[in-house]
Amino acid sequence: MSSNSVNIELRTMLLNFVFFLTLFFYAFTASQPLFYWMAVTGASRNMGAPAYIEMRNRIDDQMRKRGPLVYYSTLVTTLALAVFATIQGEPVVRMVSYIASMGLVTDIMLMMKGNIPINAIIQNWTPERYPADWQIYRDRWLKIFGYRQIALCIGFFSLLAGAVFK
């Protein structure tokens, strides 16, 4: 086996490993909107203010602790996949990694501009003390999160399609 074919094989293995890591971290990131779509959105709409505030604040506390690591890992691996796919000349993987990157960046922008500011407002509420129009905040939060769900699911499903059809 020539050194050139060994080099190509190593680069292919590296691309596959980065693709695996990207799918792994993207799955963690996309699981939140999928779970919201399946259960949490409907449950949120059926809760009274005290229960909703308690749930929203507990989820926000956990996401502040764990979310950044997952998001940074997803962003780094998705961008690395785009770079390696471009270097390797893998057009399908390059295309799906670009779509996944755009979905993730869109999600992050919507989160930073929409959901996080609303979370900060809700963090100041207690189950005993909240504004009369609390449902407006909840509905706005869910609407923005709905757009995030679409962006992340497009990105994740593009990666899955790329893994199957590459």
Mean pLDDT: 92
State the assembly state of the protein chains. Answer: single chain
User: Helical segment tally?
Assistant: 4
Structural class: mainly alpha
Using DSSP, what is the number of strands?
0
Tally of discrete structural domains: 1
Order of helices and strands: HHHH
How is this structure best described in words?
89% of the residues lie in helices and 0% in strands. By secondary structure, it is an all-alpha fold. The protein has one domain. Helix 1 runs antiparallel to helix 4, helix 2 packs antiparallel against helix 3 (91-122) and helix 3 (91-122) packs antiparallel against helix 4 (134-165). The chain starts with a helix and ends with a helix. The relative contact order is 0.16. The model has no long low-confidence stretch (mean pLDDT 92).
Task: Please describe the structure with a list of short key phrases separated by commas or semicolons.
166 residues, mainly alpha, elongated
